[in-house]
Amino acid sequence: xxxxxxxxxxxxATYINWGWLSxxxxxxxxxxxxxxLFALAILLPFPKGRDRS
Amino acid sequence: xxxDSPNPAVEPxxxxxxxxxxxxxxxxxxxxxxxxxxxxxxxxxxxxMWTSRLRRAWMSKLPPDELLPDRQPAYVASWxxxxxxxxxxxxxxxxxxxxxLAFAGPAWYHTSSPGLFTNSLHFWSVxxxxxxxxxxxxxxxxxxAWRGRRAxxxxxxxVAFLASIGTAFTGYLVQTNFDSQWISFEAKDGLNAVGxxxxxxxxxxxxxxxLHACLLPLVVGVIAVxxxxxxxxxxxxxxxxTVDTEFSVTPADGASATEVRP
Lengths: 53, 262
Fold this sequence. Notes:
The structure holds two protein chains of two kinds.
Chain A: E1 15-18, E2 21-24, H1 25-43
Antiparallel strand pairs in A: 1-2
Chain B: H1 12-20, H2 50-61, H3 64-67, E1 71-73, H4 83-104, H5 106-109, H6 113-142, H7 151-173, H8 178-193, H9 205-234, E2 245-248, E3 258-259
Antiparallel strand pairs in B: 1-2, 2-3
Helix pairs in contact in B: 4-6, 6-7, 7-9
């Protein structure tokens, strides 16, 4: 039985064209994930350790 | 002495006699018995041996309490300060899975289930490595992390980033599948156009494999260790306009922040 892939990594990626900007959907997803991670790292409170009162 | 003892010098009774009577032992210079002689010649500050000079330089630049600290600045209690060590953790997974792939070979990692799993682990840890490193880079850029004599820390981070890109690129080229063929011949046109295609031949699988598995991981590893040692010696950069404080991480100490390095 053929394995089931979440994404076809051997297929050509879909590209988004917006004026001069041309970017593949996988690259766009990775960049968005990094931006969200960065924002969360700034905004989310850091848990306090047991040794800090 | 027993008859079956092959060497009387290591007879237990003889060893005990030597320990009980150290004055009877001829040590030549009697070093260690003379109270005027430093029992630990390794800390002689006047020694000019290169080992002593190297140790003194190391101890002055990076004493053990800075290398393995038990106190951290209070401002480190933020998620943005976690991404450096996340990058290192991903790098360790890359190294371990890469070693397994190198020893087992493509016939294993392209066909067997454990091989495919290890191959995927290697690939996805690289993706996480770059995601973590980019967030780390953004965090350090926006807090101007080169402040306070930390320029070399910043520069080694930049060089590690560039070397990592080269390592990942050669990794894509040695997948030995259609994807790697496509990437290499797309890159070949570009590298030929800038005149380095003959020296750095991305269509040469052997050259790319050696660069990916031997040289470039070593470069990234050495620079990463240098980067971490600089972070330990210079300290973690504080946020801009933040009072430099530190917490103890020892439960016995327990309490509040104390100001250091005003």
